[in-house]
């Protein structure tokens, strides 16, 4: 992603909302998840979301390996994806996107200063 600004905005807004809802919640995240799994209609939604999370985790793994990152560097993103689903992939997109922009700037500076 060349411009991760949209992902950064989504990450900040959604993370803030998640933190706020967890702070005012009457039950733990685990209790809430178990309650959702207790009924077939809400369990279907949870299962669907975690299938999407598994696909996002697979994408993070494959993309990071293609970029030459170690599996250890992916663990925070995968852990966040397992717990909060969208926060892990959004954070990955933001960090990889800005890292890619920085590399382009450094590469351009290096080519500008190279002797002819």
Description:
The chain is mainly alpha-helical and 116 residues long. The chain is built from five helices and no strands. The chain has helices at 5-24, 29-37, 40-66, 71-84, 87-113. Helix 3 packs antiparallel against helix 4 and helix 4 (71-84) packs antiparallel against helix 5. The chain is elongated. It starts with a helix and ends with a helix. The mean pLDDT is 87.
Mean pLDDT, to the nearest integer, reads: 87
Overall radius of gyration: 18 Å
Strand content: under 5%
Order of helices and strands: HHHHH
The helix count comes to: 5
Instruction: Look at the helices and sheets and give the structural class.
Output: mainly alpha
Biggest sheet record: none
The overall strand count is 0
The percentage helix is over 70%
Set down the secondary structure blueprint.
Elements: H1 5-24, H2 29-37, H3 40-66, H4 71-84, H5 87-113
Helix pairs in contact: 1-5, 3-4, 4-5
Q: Could you give a quick summary of the protein structure above?
A:
This protein has 116 residues and is mostly helical. It has five helices and no strands.
